[in-house]
Amino acid sequence: MFPGAGEQIDAMVSPRIAQIPTFARLPFTRDPDPRVTSGVFLGVPFDGGVTYYSGARLGPTYIRIESRLLRPYNHALKIYPFKVLGAVDYGDIDVIPTSVEKTLNSIEETIRDLDSKGITPFIAGGDHSISLGVLRGLSRHKPILIHFDSHLDYWDQYWGGERYTHGTWVKRAIEEGIVSSVVQIGIRGPQYSEEDLKFPEKSPVPLTIITMDEVAYYGVTWLTSRLKSLKGKIYVSIDIDVVDPAFAPGTGTREVGGFTPRELISILRSLSEAEVEMVGIDVVEVSPPLDHTGITSLLAANLIYEAMSVKAVQTARKNLIQMS
Amino acid sequence: MFPGAGEQIDAMVSPRIAQIPTFARLPFTRDPDPRVTSGVFLGVPFDGGVTYYSGARLGPTYIRIESRLLRPYNHALKIYPFKVLGAVDYGDIDVIPTSVEKTLNSIEETIRDLDSKGITPFIAGGDHSISLGVLRGLSRHKPILIHFDSHLDYWDQYWGGERYTHGTWVKRAIEEGIVSSVVQIGIRGPQYSEEDLKFPEKSPVPLTIITMDEVAYYGVTWLTSRLKSLKGKIYVSIDIDVVDPAFAPGTGTREVGGFTPRELISILRSLSEAEVEMVGIDVVEVSPPLDHTGITSLLAANLIYEAMSVKAVQTARKNLIQMS
Amino acid sequence: MFPGAGEQIDAMVSPRIAQIPTFARLPFTRDPDPRVTSGVFLGVPFDGGVTYYSGARLGPTYIRIESRLLRPYNHALKIYPFKVLGAVDYGDIDVIPTSVEKTLNSIEETIRDLDSKGITPFIAGGDHSISLGVLRGLSRHKPILIHFDSHLDYWDQYWGGERYTHGTWVKRAIEEGIVSSVVQIGIRGPQYSEEDLKFPEKSPVPLTIITMDEVAYYGVTWLTSRLKSLKGKIYVSIDIDVVDPAFAPGTGTREVGGFTPRELISILRSLSEAEVEMVGIDVVEVSPPLDHTGITSLLAANLIYEAMSVKAVQTARKNLIQMS
Amino acid sequence: MFPGAGEQIDAMVSPRIAQIPTFARLPFTRDPDPRVTSGVFLGVPFDGGVTYYSGARLGPTYIRIESRLLRPYNHALKIYPFKVLGAVDYGDIDVIPTSVEKTLNSIEETIRDLDSKGITPFIAGGDHSISLGVLRGLSRHKPILIHFDSHLDYWDQYWGGERYTHGTWVKRAIEEGIVSSVVQIGIRGPQYSEEDLKFPEKSPVPLTIITMDEVAYYGVTWLTSRLKSLKGKIYVSIDIDVVDPAFAPGTGTREVGGFTPRELISILRSLSEAEVEMVGIDVVEVSPPLDHTGITSLLAANLIYEAMSVKAVQTARKNLIQMS
Amino acid sequence: MFPGAGEQIDAMVSPRIAQIPTFARLPFTRDPDPRVTSGVFLGVPFDGGVTYYSGARLGPTYIRIESRLLRPYNHALKIYPFKVLGAVDYGDIDVIPTSVEKTLNSIEETIRDLDSKGITPFIAGGDHSISLGVLRGLSRHKPILIHFDSHLDYWDQYWGGERYTHGTWVKRAIEEGIVSSVVQIGIRGPQYSEEDLKFPEKSPVPLTIITMDEVAYYGVTWLTSRLKSLKGKIYVSIDIDVVDPAFAPGTGTREVGGFTPRELISILRSLSEAEVEMVGIDVVEVSPPLDHTGITSLLAANLIYEAMSVKAVQTARKNLIQMS
Amino acid sequence: MFPGAGEQIDAMVSPRIAQIPTFARLPFTRDPDPRVTSGVFLGVPFDGGVTYYSGARLGPTYIRIESRLLRPYNHALKIYPFKVLGAVDYGDIDVIPTSVEKTLNSIEETIRDLDSKGITPFIAGGDHSISLGVLRGLSRHKPILIHFDSHLDYWDQYWGGERYTHGTWVKRAIEEGIVSSVVQIGIRGPQYSEEDLKFPEKSPVPLTIITMDEVAYYGVTWLTSRLKSLKGKIYVSIDIDVVDPAFAPGTGTREVGGFTPRELISILRSLSEAEVEMVGIDVVEVSPPLDHTGITSLLAANLIYEAMSVKAVQTARKNLIQMS
Asked: Rounded distance, CA D14 to CA D4, Å?
């Protein structure tokens, strides 16, 4: 019954409601073999960085459950993501629930280790503060940060000095020089002030804000065209609240009027046509206690699947080039 | 207070929260009079054919509750569906919860009996395996199967030999020669393999797959144009998971990125313009235990209402022709 | 910590999950100073006028909770609504839960008093019957009623003589001569009869019905163009069920196939470009017991925010004109 | 499949999840035959008399659904309640949702009619104001009122003159001279003042208050001994909030620290040993929107079943006496 | 991080919300070493044998999640159950969702294999039909069946011939001669007829029924005294509906008035004082879709823990005797 | 409408569903007058110290909502708690969500200030780590800590050095010398090791553990007798998980088999007969996202009410003594 890297437990033999839920029913291993595995799922069950509703620490648990429906072949991208990546479930990082900073260190260490072995992390959060730890672990790449969110997460600090939260990580990442540029997509909702959307002017690295209103006005195709022209290394970070609350009620800081999953998935897939190398990706802020029917976790599982597929397309293309 | 066939309890007299919930507050009878009744609602509370989450056996119970809001006149199609069909609530089929095959026999028998009297069944499932029983009962029509779903339901068997499940009924229906052709609409999500969407090539009857991606790309109007050109007898089977999980969380095998109800209803209504005769219709896979706020049952009730309206338009047109 | 009129408790000092939840964390006062305050939030926790599911009496409680996420600056309209209006939370009207008519009197009195001081009410219901009380309180303006709803609410009476319900208030308002004309937007779903949509022909004041089907067919831009050409005083009444049940499950009389929040918000914002004066606005029929994840209350809070922003734009424009 | 009065649809033939849910799967009739039927279930879907959370209008709908599990034989009381009573489901009274007083009239009329035919009503509310209408309909009996509740419901009026609410019906019933005495059981929770529990001193009819604290202190057996010594005609009214919120979360005015169902059922059963004649009974204040898992409706269905059993024991005993 | 048999992932190192949820965070293995492991957790995710609400197939998934809180030491029984048993999580049996009989075969085979290695199964269902498969696998022991349930499960067949369901397994087990006697504890609720509780008279093996009413009347101590006097091999089967619905809402066939967990756990623990050998145990009928807050799964996890503790006490005692 | 200290908004004038929800509808003030106010409600919306499920930061918000049912007179204790204490709602402490230690400082400061004015705090958490801050603020009293909980909270540290969590605060309080002795009531569930319940032997201050099993065995009266003999200053800290999950599902670390509210309230009330001075009290670990029907918040509100009543009895007695 138990499969090798990149293979799922066969649903035609063992029903999907059976067996301990690893991501997509892939094998679990803490020690992936870099010769066969170039991508792993891992969870970061931490929500100590949230400013509003907590609960995202349960994200990995419930995303795994809903991921049991995922199947091997991505018809839209014509790829077998798990097989191409030799994907496995790496388990979760041992976070320190009461300390953002120690948790960031833990994350950084694990990610750096995986990255050094050529293994790309596909991460389920956790709140958005964890992305800083991941980017630190990937610092040698200094990627473009593709940031899907309804919020800017670009504040300096909260409550008289708190510098590491889910609302400040973008600013920290820029300050720490670990991203080369930032593209923020889906920004919407009320802002603190008219200064908020002027951050790009002050940013030491190129920072582009694409609001939800702009996407609604110019169209998804306008956006995907822009993304397809990207070049270089990218890191993709998806705050699930970029999606409308109807499709993703299970998140802490909901903003009405967001993307539909059909839109977001087509945007994500467009990255498969860009000349980029995806060095990692996270889907964060899934808060199962607020997700009574599981649809937010299901969506997160599918977004990770699509991201794995994009990476697999890149990998297959690269292999093709290397072979030729 | 108690109405005749095709009439609802008057909400202006008896509030909609009152009285035992029959479908749309129509009269219940196990013995409809074919002289006045040409369409009945009936439930098939069976979920013994599911491969993933169970719960659809409660569909008829909750669809009836949410159907209490339905009113007599369909403004979009300019028709009084209940009146035209002399509609009644026939109650539920006595399924055998522990046996798919015996249940299929029960369904077949009831449907054949109704059909022989010229009464069209409008069915609330239950899981999708029940559609095979219905099609058997309607076998003399050998209709075109219009199948709305996110899944193909075209597998041969599960778990070493299970041939009758909600994932195999389309294959069985084709094998048994009880459908003349198949149109599958809304297919999406990960597949088992690249072979999956090549089923049409091997099918002994014409089988067309229209994916959700295609509809999103070409537009709903492209699809409705195609449907309007259909000719002959049709059977419509709607797996509620063809709709996006935000609109239909209460179903067992959810796939993100589906139709919106606005889209699906306009597609369904387009059948009123085709030269077809609808010999039956089902809405299946509504699973109330996963539908915390009742919106999935509500949608199912409305889809049945729209289907009744389409049939009523066909009936009215036919009557007009016969009269002239 | 405690702010003046138009100012919110600072989330960078006191986290949004803290403190007694007033609307948008604005100061509460029963005695707003007309020199600084030209707009107030107030709740009308009444659901004694509903014909179907009750629960809307809890609307104000939960809308306040979800409103804690609102921030000062509306980027889309380039305005600080709370600051411009000197907004405060006025608390709730002391309704009489067992009497529609006494409650209407209470509402009328409070609204008339606020209006006489030049203070615009931004109201959270409660069921739709309350809008009649508000319109009576604003009768000196005799505004155009912009009515967003999936239902016409234009019936004469229910159950042998009940004239004051959430389904009759539009008819009453017209009869009482307190609105100059009516525009109904979003109408959909089954009707009682083909006569229903012919109400405009019989109405003593101009009455326009714009169905959801029409908006879907002609496009949102078609609708906003029409709204931008409005002139005069307007009162906006939003039944949350104008939105699709996926986005607003928490309401009593849900109709599938409604607006998305993105559509509705862009329609609402278009009023900021019309030469109109908004004399009041309500968002009604939010029923928290049916809103398990809070997204309906969240949406209602945002709609009130957008309406305040529209009013603030009008106010700012007027001030500009007066200054020049 | 369809049974006669006093008989249920056979669950060994038609599974309990099937068929339109009448109470306990008994036959529905609006015109019970007094020769075979001496007890009917009926619903009163009204919640216009509540002072706090609404929702009880949905009580009859959901109590019927959960009642499908009830079976013919009460082993504890050694009786077949449905058979002895020739029980049927009478449907619901056509309440006027917006008017307490008109609804009371409707109830009174129906109950008086049934009572005149010798048919005992077993009622599912609805809020507690409805009990006044029932008692009016039964006024010829002037019964002892056995009132299970955590609240006294003995206030004179609310909000400057509202005399008919779920908090005033006991006072009205005493004033109207339609009960001979009152026993209130389960009273607990905070009171308005120390005067509250002194009502008995001022009551024109004997009024006994037995608090939850007393039952907890003296024991359930102490209470049942007292009840067994009752003589004469009784009417039993059970506010489901007499039960602890853990067992009955689905009600509007919950008080912690109430009865367990085991306690309440044994108390109810003790009435079968008293020399009393039960002329009617209601279970009220079940509010399904607050009852996410259905256990409150299930409990209510069982309480009605036990009350029917008590009545059946009385009936059987009387028949025995008459025969001898 | 990863522990040996009988050891849990250390919560002081890896927070309990982290890592893939095996039962009690014990190691997962499909091939337990009989030299160190004498007890395993295993799941049977099957609900194809239910007559009423489905959903129990998700039991193992959610019981594992809630089991993460379990700690090593049972203070009441003074034992380390996991350590003594060298416990591991064996995963789930590959059930055939559409076939009771094939699933029973699967179960039997696995259980027989484990039993032949001297490994005791601690099972999470699944519906109650699965217990028949387990008992078949343990047939060499012909144990006393200690059956906790609110229902007798002793019917011959349903729906014209269905002999394998969750309501017939006790009768089948007796007929098949695989239990030596039966003790049923907690029986309550309405029965089909007065014959139901007379089953013992007709049973070919000794069958004792202890109703909930008897336990309530004579006291829990009366019951535990009886249980402590048991001798021989026992199999314990716990239908979670033996517990009151307030404590276990998440089950399909709820009966009001059941045990409290405090009662049930003290009853279970009393078996540690009897001269018996527990050859297996199951906790069945946990239906997560009906268990909105997870407390039913949590209770099931604790019941399995207590049963493991009882077994561990027996094992420790036996070892002591063998050593002496 | 707006009342003075110790007075509630009159529910007979303004319905309880109306107005911004302060605790028990008492007036809100950040600056209570010590001449009239000797007790305040305050919230501490912090859950950064939890080791398992988060969510308790929303405790104060939802406890306030459910507290609207509280009335002025406690019949059991014959006291008007709000009036005697001149109670007000002080609002919430401005916690620092991302830092336990800074939050502890904030709490300490506020509590010390209130205490210096002779005002007793009645606190709604937040997680249990906050109690350490409160005890620090009350350090001049060095009270006996009466600790209701299913867990010991006496660990030294978590995850390699985290000393301030909801599982370590009792140990810290003892180490810091701010409590004179500790009584722990309700301890149950699995432990880490047999050493756990031997903490008292090593504790530098007297520490008594009373397990749930002991209370169940010896009876509640045995416990209340012991509590009535207490003398001196006490601080009462109630982890809501001391109550059984059926009554308090909304908490993060549930243990089956706990107190019923009836038991806990009678225990709490017994303190009114002891010669003690209550210097403060908290109810913590209420996690609304896990409390779907609000009963946990309701229970917490009632526990605070009973604690206020105990304090009021003490105050009244003291005043009586002073007067005499």
From this structure: 16
Contacts with A225 (C-beta within 8 Å, 6 or more apart), sequence order: none
Could you say which DSSP state residue A52 is in? S
The DSSP H or E segment spanning A253 is: none
Whole-angstrom Cα distance, residue E19 to residue F256? 23
Say if residue B1's pLDDT is above 70: no
Write down which chains contact chain A via at least 3 CB pairs under 8 A: B, C, E, F
Residue B2 has pLDDT above 80, yes or no: no
Considering only CB atoms, which residues of chain B are within 8 Å of chain A?
Answer: 51-53, 155, 158-160, 189-194, 196-197, 211-213, 216, 244-247, 249-250, 253-257, 290-292
Of B13, B71, B295, the CB nearest to C190: B71
Query: Quick check: B96 and E51 CB within 8 A?
Result: no
Model confidence at E285: pLDDT above 70: yes
In chain A, the residue whose alpha carbon lies closest to the alpha carbon of B245 is A295
Q: For the residues C244-264, what does the mean pLDDT come to?
A: 98
Bond from prior residue into B126 cis (ω within 30 degrees of 0): yes
Task: Say how far apart CA D296 and CA D125 lie, in whole Å.
Answer: 13
Q: How many whole angstroms separate alpha carbon B297 and alpha carbon B67?
A: 8
Alpha-carbon distance of F313 to F307, in angstroms, equals: 10
Residue C65: its pLDDT value, please?
98
CA–chain centroid gap for F266, Å, is 15
Q: Pick from E19, E20, E92: which is nearest to A18 by CB?
A: E92
| Rounded Cα distance, C225 and C18, in Å | 42
Domains in chain A and their CATH numbers? 23-323 (3.40.800.10)
Phi, psi of F101, rounded to the nearest 5 degrees: -70, -40
Interface pTM, i.e. ipTM: 0.96
Instruction: Report in angstroms the alpha-carbon separations of A32 from A86, A112, A281, A306, D116.
Output: 9, 14, 18, 21, 81
Mind listing the pLDDT tens digit for each residue in D109-129? 999 999 999 999 999 999 999
Amino acid at E269: R
Q: What is the DSSP code (8-state) at residue D290?
A: G
For A57, the closest of F54, F94, F292 (CB atoms) is F54
| Residue F1 scores a pLDDT above 80 | no
Mean pLDDT, residues F109-119: 98
**pTM (2 d.p.):** 0.97
Half-sphere exposure of D60 (CA within 13 A, CB side): 30
Asked if residues A7 and A86 have their Cβ atoms less than 8 Å apart, the reply is: no
Tell if the CB–CB gap between E99 and B162 is shorter than 8 Å: yes
Q: Which of D190, D250, D292 sits opposite F73 (nearest CB)?
A: D190
Q: Which two tokens stand for residue A307?
A: 């991201």
Binning pLDDT at 50, 70 and 90, where does residue D195 land? confident
Per-residue pLDDT reduced to its tens digit, D218-245: 999 999 999 999 999 999 999 999 999 9
**DSSP 3-state helix, strand, coil percentages of chain C (rounded to 5)?**
40, 20, 40
Scanning every residue of chain D, which has its alpha carbon at the shortest distance from the alpha carbon of C289?
Answer: D289
Contact B245 A299 (CB under 8 A): yes
Q: What is the pLDDT of residue F198?
A: 85
Cβ distance of D15 and B64 shorter than 8 Å: no
Interface of F with C (CB under 8 A): 1-2, 13-15, 17-22, 28, 30, 43, 45, 57-58, 60-61, 64-65, 89, 91-97, 292
Nearest of A322, F15, C193, C18 to residue D51 by alpha carbon = F15
The beta-carbon neighbor of A57 closest among E14, E17, E91 is: E17
Judged by CB atoms closer than 8 Å, whether chains meet at A15 and E95 is answered as yes
Token code pair at residue C84: 């411009």
Interface residues of E toward F, Cβ cutoff 8 Å, are 11-13, 15-17, 69-76, 78, 80, 244, 246-247, 260-262, 265-266, 292-295, 298-299, 302, 305
